[in-house]
Hints:
219 residues, alpha/beta, Alpha/beta knot, two-stranded antiparallel ribbon, 4 helices, 12 strands
Amino acid sequence: MRRFALLGHRAMSQGNLPLNDMAGGAGRMDVLVRALMAAMLTSHGIRHDTEVVLHLMGGPGPNRRIKFVGSLLKGVHAEERAVGGQIGKVLKLPIPARGQWVERSAGIFDGGGDINHTLAEWSESTVVCLDADAPRLWNQGESIPLKSQPLSKHTGEHGDFTVSGIDIGFILSDDKPLPDTVGSDAMLQRSLGDVWLQGHMAIGVCHFLLDEGVKLNLD
């Protein structure tokens, strides 16, 4: 399974999402929407071996998490306003209790809590926090295989997929660092290069490495 936790420190957690001003009035929700699309969508479909958790931390009220589960997801298309509209429907509803998930539509779950709740749910996964100043995500000297050897893949039909291979979670923050309260001794700090990439571009690189089967530096 491929998991992505996206932190939006200014992203609104409830209310009426302004689709015409997601970059301003919604607290840079546009950044999260682009990252979500990069994580969940291929050119002609949905990545069924992928889950994304948006962390909406900008209020009003408590933090909110919205989880997108690729194996269950329907009706998500590569258009920012459409994806923003689906998030907006969730924001109009009461925030569930911390640690609780409520399915709002096919494959879209709504919950309270923060990144520490997500890390607790990922306790069986290898967790990587992307940081340009950290060691590289891939092993030194590794080359791209001439034939794709995906590190995770799925089989089955919609709603009944089996996912095999690596179970890895990536944490990506916006322009602000992770909260000081984030505690996971097992969390790895890894880099995709010296340049600080935008979130959706970093996710694309992660998927490429996993799709091609490049050996990762996870020790």
